[in-house]
Write a structure and sequence with these properties.
The complex is a heterodimer of chains A (472) and B (156). The N terminus of chain A is likely disordered. With 472 residues, chain A is α/β, with parallel strands linked by helices. Chain A has a domain of 191 residues. Chain A has 13 helices and 23 strands. Chain A has a 16-stranded mixed β-sheet. Chain A has a three-stranded parallel β-sheet with strand order 11-13-15. In chain A, strands 4-7 form a two-stranded parallel ribbon. In chain A, helix 11 packs parallel to helix 13. Chain B has 156 residues and is mostly helical. Chain B has a single domain, classed as Potassium Channel Kv1.1, Chain A, CATH 3.30.710.10. Chain B has a three-stranded mixed β-sheet. Chain B is elongated and about 65 Å long. Chain B starts with 7 loop residues before the first strand and ends in a 6-residue tail after the last helix. In chain B, 26% of the residues are buried. Chain A: This is F-box domain-containing protein. Chain A: InterPro entries: At1g61320/At1g61330-like, F-box-like_dom_sf, F-box_dom, LRR_At1g61320_AtMIF1, LRR_dom_sf. Chain A: It comes from Dioscorea zingiberensis.
Chain lengths: 472, 156
Amino acid sequence: MDETKRSAPSIDDFIGEDALLCKILSKLSLAEAVRTSVLNRRWRYIWTYLPNLQATHSNHCIFRRDGSKHVRRYTSPEELIDEAVQIMDSVVNQHCGFGLETFEVDIPFFKKYAGSLDRWVAFAAAANVKELVLKLQMIDIHLFPMVEFYEFPFHLLFQQKRQSSIERLYFEYCSLQVPDGIGRLRSLRTLTLHCVNIDDVNFQNLVSTCSVMECLEVQDCTELVNMSIHQQSRRLKHLTVYYCPSLMSVEIQAAHLDTFAYTGYDINLSFDNLSSVTEGSIYFSSRSYFLDYVLMTLPNVLPKCSKLTLWIDYETKLTCVPEVIYHRFEHLKHLVVTIDIVIGDNLLWLVGLLAAAPLLEKFNLHLHLEDPGPPIRVPVENIPLAHLKEVEIYGFTGSEGQLIFLQYLCHNASSLKLMRIIGSQWRNFWSDPEEILPSVREETLGHLKRIVPPGLDFTISYTHFTRSFHSF
Amino acid sequence: MVGVKKKMVTLVSSDGVEFVVEKRVAEQSLFIKNALNEGGVEEKVMIPIPKVTSDTLSSVLEYCEKHASATEFQENEIEEWDKEYIEKADLDLLYYLLQASYSMSIMGLMELGAKKVASLIRGKSPQEIRELFNIKNDFTPEQEEEIRREMQWNYE
């Protein structure tokens, strides 16, 4: 051994705490961390205290016996997954189980892995894992057209006194059967179901075992038809439902629900009388009378809503201001409206929404306009927007319809303090900004000069310029 | 802030060197933050930092100072700074920083140091790792062979 090598500082002399070595290993891929057990006696079992274990087929290296590195024979995706399963099989045999925080499986599922997955779930449950994440997503759907779902062995979670102290569960491409009264998930705070086969009954059984659940996210669960969340979920604060294609209704009795987001087809939403939702986000795709729903029904569904996000798509019929406003959002302070590719240049229908929120303070408008076309002129009654202080508009193209709407806002919002306008990316995308923008810019600025009242903090920015003026 | 006197604390390294720093800088260390809360003393606080020498402590405080004013910088600026900071540490200092971040409970620094050491391990054969970190192999060839066998997938 030569002189320089002998004088290299020894990590074993300098770092006394095994916990620090374990911290270092936690930054490596599982395979690389396990490899360090061959270094010497001290390192032999350090990795078996790793708090987070992840089975994945994407990021581990293979080393040859002679130590040469980065030499990788050709492997098919399936071989890589086989290998990842083999690694985790060996890891759960050796890991001490102490202090296990998260156990994550991030590999596509095939039936042949079911036995291994069952063993891993049993290991993680016995180690009192806090988070169990099963992302069994499909790989290339063309190569493997048969989608296989892992049947999650729920009974394995409840080996001790029919209770589990798990705090977070994440299922993707799993099939869930939850027999009534199987046990209690007494610490579960967060539950995520993505592409999960679960029917109404099993869903209800599952939710009713989670008495302290705070956060529930359901996405692409095709078997759900009527989703009901009953009083057992007293602590539920956040609920997200995203594109469950068979869903007909969502019925919720959760007294402390704070945020609710729904995206998907037109369904019947019902909350108990005490709906406490303060932040709502609603998108009914392809519902032509969405605006009528928002104005006639939604104020009763979300009566305490203080922030509301709405998505308007090309199917929505943009009816103008209703003559009578039946219901109001009495607590709404912040409204966000995203308009997705609407053809036509009339924005005055938004006035009906603004008028239904008498206490509105902040209004954000996101425009994704493809071709505004000629403006549609309709007479609109001036309704005072007494509390509106802040307006932000994204995707502004300077079209006549938009300017008319701005004029309306400036005229009726007497306490308006701040207005930010951010130019459209679309227009720059389709046409040369240098050619189009200057003319639009000058014309628009000319109009705005006449519209914007003195004292308003006003900023307009395109990709290429920003201009602020406090008064003209 | 003009006119407001900054609260200072004095840290004493294991070799007896005193460092006078702003309280908010020292409080990047949870160990010190807790010590200050328990003491409840406002002025002339002296906190001994056992097992951390003056050389290491001055480097640790450089980190704390930057991160105490992290809000003034963009996130990627801090990331860049971190990268440069840990890059210039040699192996000895890296060990000392890790040990200090552990005993002083400075989570960000511990993460940074651990990531750096991990990056040195990554992609190396066991023998290369032993040489780099001067790890003495105390296994008999038979024992080593057995461990390797257990994890055959790693050494194909």
